[in-house]
C-alpha cells in the first residue's frame, strides 16, 4: 500500500492511500464497447474536465463521482465500476453543462442495464419497480404526498382519475411482457392488478 500527498493550489494538502492494485488481468478491453451497445455512446469521448461532477446534485453524497465512474469505464475496470455504489438521478444536468456536448447520464443508464443483467441490482431499483407494479407509480403514496398534491391543486392521487385502472394494467403488462419483473425478482402484490 502506497501513500501519496495531494497538494492543492491553495496550499491545502491531504494524504491519499491506495490499497488496491489493479493489473491488466483486472481490465476488460470490451467494457467500453458493451457500454456503447447499451446507449453510453460518449464513454470514450470524455476528456475528464469534471463539469459533470461539479453540477451533479448527488456528487456530494456519494464516494464515486460521475467523472471517476467514466474514467473507470474508459480503463475497462468493469468489476470495480459495477460493484461501486454509484447513483444517478438522471436529471441530465451533466449533459447540459458538458462543454463537449457529451451525455454522462446516458452512460449511467447503460451501466444500470449492464449491472442489472449481471444480477447487480441496487435496492432503490427494486423498490421503485415494485411500487410501479403495485401502485402504478415509482413512489409509494403516503400522507405527506397526498397533502402536498392537495396544496398544489392536483388530484389526491393519480389513481383517483378516470381510466387509471386501465393505465395501471398497461404498466403491469409492459413490465411482465418485457420480463423486467423476473429480471429484478419482483412480483405484483396480491390484489394490486
The major pleated sheet works out as: 2 strands, antiparallel
Number of domains: 2
The strand count comes to 2
How much strand content do the residues show? 5-15%
Name its key features:
46% helix, two-stranded antiparallel sheet, Fumarate Reductase Iron-sulfur Protein, Chain B, domain 2, globular, 2 strands, 193 residues, mainly alpha
Give an overview in words.
With 193 residues, the chain is mostly helical. The protein folds into two domains: 24-117, Alpha-helical ferredoxin (Fumarate Reductase Iron-sulfur Protein, Chain B, domain 2); 123-184, no CATH class. Helices cover 46% and strands 6% of the residues. The chain is built from ten helices and two strands, in the order E-E-H-H-H-H-H-H-H-H-H-H. A two-stranded antiparallel ribbon has the order 1-2. Helix 1 packs across helix 6 (104-117). The radius of gyration is 21 Å and the shape is globular. The relative contact order is 0.11. The model has no long low-confidence stretch (mean pLDDT 85).
Describe the structure concisely.
The protein has 193 residues and is mainly alpha-helical. 46% of the residues lie in helices and 6% in strands.
Amino acid at each position: 500500500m502506497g501513500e501519496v500527498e495531494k497538494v492543492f493550489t491553495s496550499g491545502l494538502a491531504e494524504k491519499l492511500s491506495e490499497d488496491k492494485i489493479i493489473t491488466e488481468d483486472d481490465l476488460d478491453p470490451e467494457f467500453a464497447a458493451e457500454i456503447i451497445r447499451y446507449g453510453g455512446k460518449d464513454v470514450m469521448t470524455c476528456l475528464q474536465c469534471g463539469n459533470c461532477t461539479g453540477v451533479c446534485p448527488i456528487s456530494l453524497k456519494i464516494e464515486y463521482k460521475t467523472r471517476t465512474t467514466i474514467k473507470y469505464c474508459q480503463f475497462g475496470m468493469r468489476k470495480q465500476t459495477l460493484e461501486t455504489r454509484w447513483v444517478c438521478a438522471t436529471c441530465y444536468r451533466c449533459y447540459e453543462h458538458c462543454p463537449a456536448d457529451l451525455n454522462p447520464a446516458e452512460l449511467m443508464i447503460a451501466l444500470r442495464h449492464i449491472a442489472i443483467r449481471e444480477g447487480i441490482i441496487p435496492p432503490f431499483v427494486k423498490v421503485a419497480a415494485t411500487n410501479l407494479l403495485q401502485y402504478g407509480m415509482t413512489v409509494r403514496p403516503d400522507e405527506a404526498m397526498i397533502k402536498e398534491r392537495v396544496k398544489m391543486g392536483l388530484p389526491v392521487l393519480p389513481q383517483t382519475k378516470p381510466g387509471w385502472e386501465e393505465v395501471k394494467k398497461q404498466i403491469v403488462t409492459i413490465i411482465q411482457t418485457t420480463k423486467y419483473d423476473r429480471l429484478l425478482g419482483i412480483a405484483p402484490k396480491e390484489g394490486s392488478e
